[in-house]
Design brief:
Elements lengths: L4 E2 L4 E3 L9 E4 L2 E4 L3 E6 L2 E6 L11 E9 L3 E5 L6 E4 L12 H4 L5 E9 L5 E4 L6 E3 L3 E4 L5 H5 L4 H10 L2 E4 L4 E5 L2 H16 L6 H17 L13 E3 L2 E3 L7 H11 L4
Parallel strand pairs: 9-11
Antiparallel strand pairs: 1-5, 2-4, 3-4, 5-6, 7-8, 7-10, 8-9, 10-11, 10-12, 13-15, 14-15, 16-17
Helix pairs in contact: 3-5, 4-5
Length: 265
């Protein structure tokens, strides 16, 4: 399918009810408010920006990092222009203010849901879901938020392939943060693959290209390393003393030969 690039002001729909992300409505028509790629999903039309910061929407699932703790809120960096506010009432169980740092401390990361975003960009977060959790192991990799769909792939094809070929657990946040967990060497390989996806995101047949890259990397890892040779000196054992053979004859040997040939010398 050919992707259509749009700019601000381009007409996207004649029906205002079809307005989605990255659009505005004027005279009951939907126009693009961003420079990006037109996206149609169900009965909504939107625009995926070609670049820029993550702009949160309700029900987005993201990876947030705690930056501040107040008596009743955790404030989290979600890679958006504004931090998100996570109120203690949105935690699955009752939490006392004194216990908040033991649950989520500054620097801790969690998979969390965007509950609401108002017109002034006040972002409310929630953790009331069994799939949302504090991240205790693994690493977080960051990519451009607009590249997230390419890491997931059509119908989840890319992320399924990455999990299988690298033996790693992966969660892709809609804010461009990706959590990975596995053996160190597997995570390093996965990070290389994610970087390749980000660099070549605009290319077609990307899943096949990344699959080929991973297969090639894995084959290279299986190849035996070349043997290393060391130059060592031979040692001759004479009783308890080690002697290293010298090149040619010593001066003492030549002196003894001279005495034998000429006794008067």
């Amino acid at each position: 399918m050919v992707k259509k690039i749009v700019i601000p002001g381009d007409l996207l729909s004649e029906n205002a009810q079809n307005a989605g992300y990255g659009t505005y409505v004027k005279n009951n028509k939907v126009y693009s408010s961003l420079c990006g790629i037109e996206s149609s999903k169900e009965d909504k039309v939107g625009v995926i920006p070609l670049a820029g910061a993550y702009m949160p929407s309700p029900n987005d699932v993201v990876i947030g990092i705690v930056v501040t703790i107040t008596p009743s809120n955790w404030f989290m960096d979600i890679a958006a222009p504004h931090d998100g506010m996570f109120h203690v009432s949105e935690y699955p169980r009752r939490v006392e203010s004194a216990d908040m740092p033991s649950i989520l401390n500054v620097g801790d990361a969690a998979i969390i849901r965007v509950k609401d975003v108002n017109e002034s960009m006040k972002i409310e977060l929630a953790l009331r879901d069994s799939s949302l959790q504090k991240l205790r192991t693994g690493q977080i990799v960051e990519i451009e938020p607009v590249k997230v769909p390419r890491v997931i792939g059509h119908g989840g094809s890319m992320i399924s392939m990455l999990k299988k070929e690298t033996n790693c657990n992966i969660f892709v946040g809609q804010n461009g943060r990706i959590w990975i967990d596995g053996k160190d060497e597997d995570m390093e390989l996965l990070k290389k693959a994610i970087q390749l996806i980000q660099v070549e995101a605009q290319r077609s047949e990307l899943t096949d290209r990344v699959y080929g890259f991973l297969k090639n990397e894995l084959e290279m890892q299986k190849q035996p390393k070349p043997a290393t040779f060391f130059n060592t000196k031979m040692k001759i054992m004479t009783g308890t003393k080690e002697e290293t053979p010298e090149k040619g004859h010593s001066e003492e040997t030549y002196r003894k030969i001279d005495v034998l040939l000429d006794p008067e010398a």
